[in-house]
Specification:
It is globular, with a radius of gyration of 22 Å. It is built from three helices and twelve strands; from the N terminus they run αββββββαβαβββββ. It is of the alpha+beta class. The protein has two domains: 28 residues; 210 residues, Lipocalin (Beta Barrel), CATH 2.40.128.
């Protein structure tokens, strides 16, 4: 009788520890960067170029960074901007586009991940599980609208400012909408941005999250290391006359 009770007690302990371990695993899931969630909708009509001055994208100065998160941590990397231009009328950006070279997508972080592991992940990102770059070598963004920013931003606590500023444009000047095409799927996204226009150049910065599944990127990850749906994009775009 004692052995039966002891066995039952041990079974209950094992069940308890298993439950606690599972809960701890869920709670330890690396959260997506606390950024602005882009508003996603159906594709819209491209902004008409009309008149105005055309600025060409400075490909060496411009960059797109990404962060993907999962239960065990995160990965980050870059994608090269292949081409692009912005049109300015009356000192305001009115139209524009840029093209991403998906063959250039690489994983470069975090630092604790070995170069071999990053190389392996880069290969996986190129595969059909993710961006299928052999079939879809380019992604693109085409502006459908630019308007003065009129939203409200919650001022973070002093202790949060440095961290949030990494992933949010805290002083946006405009709200930008455009058609983002990845893997041949086109969706409109809207997000705040900071845009500075001068006679010689344009500098634009945007930071936001998108839901990768909206663009057919549905790979779930390993059963014990699931990938979050949100992908963070940090965009810095410079264009010159």
């Amino acid at each position: 009788m004692f052995s039966t009770k002891k066995a039952l007690h041990m079974k209950n302990l094992i069940l308890l520890f298993t439950t606690l371990f599972s809960l701890a695993t869920i709670l330890s899931c690396k959260q997506a960067p606390e950024s602005t969630d882009a508003v996603t909708s159906a594709p819209q009509k491209e902004a008409e170029v009309g008149g105005g001055t055309t600025y060409k994208t400075d490909l060496t100065a411009s960059k797109l960074e990404w962060i993907g998160t999962k239960v065990s941590g995160y990965h980050s990397g870059t994608v090269n901007i292949k081409s692009g231009e912005l049109t300015v009328s009356n000192d305001e950006v009115t139209a524009g586009n840029f093209v991403l070279d998906m063959h250039s997508i690489v994983s470069i972080g975090p630092k604790k991940v070995s170069p071999d592991a990053n190389k392996k992940l880069t290969g996986h990102l190129h595969s059909e599980d993710f961006f299928d770059v052999a079939k879809f070598p380019e992604a693109s963004f085409v502006i459908t609208g630019v308007k003065k920013f009129s939203g409200t931003l919650t001022e973070p606590e002093e202790s949060q400012k440095e961290e949030l500023n990494k992933y949010k444009v805290t002083d946006p000047t405009h709200t930008v909408s455009g058609n983002l095409t990845i893997k041949g799927i086109e969706k409109n996204i809207e997000f705040p941005a900071r845009i500075l226009v001068s006679d010689e150049s344009i500098e634009a910065q945007a930071k936001f999250n998108i839901d990768r599944k909206d663009w057919g990127i549905v790979y779930a990850g390993q059963p014990d290391d699931l990938i979050r749906d949100e992908i963070y994009f940090g965009l810095y775009l410079k264009a010159v006359r």
